[in-house]
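Example record

One chain of 213 residues, shown exactly as stored in the release files.
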Amino acid sequence: MLLGDGYLRIVDTPRHSSSTFWIEHSQYQMDYLLWKKDQIDSIFQDKNIDRVCRFYSRDRYDKRTNKIYRSCSICLNWRPYLSFLYRKVYKGDRSKNIRFLLDNISLDKHLAIWFMDDASESKSKAKHIDGTVYFKNPYFRLAMYPQTIGECQLTKEWFQRIYHVYPSINKYKHGPILQFSVADSKRLFPHIRPYVANIESMRRKFSLCLERY
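Predicted structure tokens for this chain:
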């Protein structure tokens, strides 16, 4: 989760001290956020630890668009462990230690969470001879910003070594991405399909992959 949308927040002042883990999503992915909450809480249940994530929702008014944006988040407060984890995950400049996070991906569930957070299914249209329009097979784009190109290269090599797929590194306005070929996307999707298929918002996000792969 820290490789995707999760982050750690450390507050250490004379008046207040805390270490918390946060994830935030829009209301349209509330089911996905609650699924993550269940994954975390189940770990504590299995280990008989009296601790759970807290759930929050909020509305934010944006003057620029004159719209109200609704989001939801979960927060885990566990100072001893999260302070220790913070030192492992973040470097001196507060960027994430990608090598450490990649070294701790050991299950398909881990890959699924990363892709459900940061990947998208890209698809392009084409025409049949009769002029009707159809979608070509989809492929994955995995957002890597704010990672550096060197960290993208490290991640690319990790995918080659672990999953035998060969993404390219592309630069976009917001930052670099890893782009997977159709063949490599087809090879990766079965690893994350069981998790995508069980979460409605993720079924919408990867609808064409579910249909084709």
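Notes: The longest helix spans residues 30-46.
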